[in-house]
Amino acid sequence: MKNSIWITTFFLVAGTLLTGCEKSEKGTFLGSAVVEVTTYQVPALVQGPLSLVLHNEGDSVIGGELIALVDTLPYALQYSEASAGVEQLNASLAAQSSQISSIQAETRGLEQEANRITPLSQQGAATQQQADKISSSKDAASFRLDAARRSVKGLDAQRQALQYRIELLNTQLQRCRILSPASGVVLTRYRNPGEAVAPGQSVYEIGRADSVHADFFVPQGTLSSLRLGDEVRIRVEGEKPSDAKHVTAKVSFISSEAEFTPKNIQTRESRSELVFRVRAAASSENGLLKRGLPVEIWK
Q1: Is the pTM of this model over 0.85?
Q2: Fold that domain 20-70+185-298 belongs to in CATH
């Protein structure tokens, strides 16, 4: 009976020691995982109905490619209106500038006439009425010149405001173009042409094509054998064990804290049950690794 108990205890201990990692001819089994990809929620940046939604789920896209378009007509009309306003103000400013030049020329002529009449008036060769008339004409010309200059300032301020509006509308027109943030695959299409969107509402979810990752969990005993940058293998099952394929990956993240267990457990037995999250990152350019695919991690 005692021998039976000792044999049972031996196998339990042996099983516990082998739980952390499984060795085979292929290496050391670290854990099971599910492939995840870096994703982007691609939002609309302006409000309006969607004129174009160019891709469906599963389509490949290139970074910077036009993938959707918000209706540009309202912004284009406002842009044309503001541009026409600037042209009209430019014409008004040109007319005011011409008027200012004319008034300045008139003022110079009146000053010359005043310089001629004043001595003659003092000598009695010209009447005081003539001198007063020239002085009044000079004052009137000066008043008209000041008014024209104030008008130019006002028109210029209006033109500057319209130019700022044109810049804003041009930005809005550019933001109507929804571009792919990265090369990858359309994972989710949230909107259809004709549907209205508000700024910040997602139109697509896109997964990057150049990188994937798989998070797996290892016990404390196995953690000491892993370092950032270590090379591991992601194993993808085939129809038969011999059809399995491997993708080289690297350890890109190791959690500094245990997960799924209380942090205040201190006994030796409980510490062996703590698990830590580890991330293996790999390239997905060959298309083998897809989001949601169950895989195994080996070293």
Answers
A1: no
A2: Elongation Factor Tu (Ef-tu); domain 3 (2.40.30)
